Amino acid sequence: MDREVVEQKLEALRRCLQRIETKCPPEADTLITDFDLQDIVSLNLSRAVQLCVDIGAHLISGMDVPPPDTMGQTFDRLAQAGILSVALALSLKKAVGFRNIAVHNYDAINWHIVHSIVKNHLADFTEFAKIVVNQLD
């Protein structure tokens, strides 16, 4: 595992989360009608998911576990290795599902769900980052 690469990705993750927190409106209805906010939130949420997958892949590369076949499996492997809780791995796998919709089928995004993800699950990314920092020490 390349510590410097992981630290750079963690910093990028921090910036994405900060951007989401500062730009996501308190009410979902505002997000539904503001295309600029939709772009900012969805792009940074997609980036956050991708960064977590990339960081997870770096962790897995230094472990004796099979490589994941899918992005979501990255979090399964980390849970199997005892690095992530099963609950956190499941939550991050669901975030991969959002990322896939955002990247491949943007028109199908349900902005109420995105707003809920931001308000109720952004802490999952922070928890993941804390776990990774502990792995680096």
Protein traits:
137 residues; 0% strand; globular
Main sheet, how many strands, which sense, barrel?
A: none
Please give the number of β-strands. Answer: 0
Low-pLDDT sequence parts? none
> Which structural category do the helix and sheet elements fall into?
mainly alpha
CATH domain class: Mainly Alpha
As a percent range, the share of helical residues equals over 70%
Overall structural domain count: 1
* Average pLDDT rating: 93
Provide the β-strand percentage band. under 5%
Radius of gyration: 15 Å
Structure overview:
The longest helix is centred in the middle third of the chain and has 27 residues, at 35-61. The chain has one domain: Four Helix Bundle (Hemerythrin (Met), subunit A). 80% of the residues lie in helices and 0% in strands. It is built from 6 helices and no strands. It is globular, with a radius of gyration of 15 Å. 31% of the residues are buried. With 137 residues, the chain is mainly α.
Can you lay out the helices and strands and say which pair or pack?
Layout: H1 3-23, H2 28-33, H3 35-61, H4 71-80, H5 86-104, H6 111-136
Task: Please give a quick description of this structure.
The chain has 137 residues and is mostly helical. 80% of the residues lie in helices and 0% in strands.
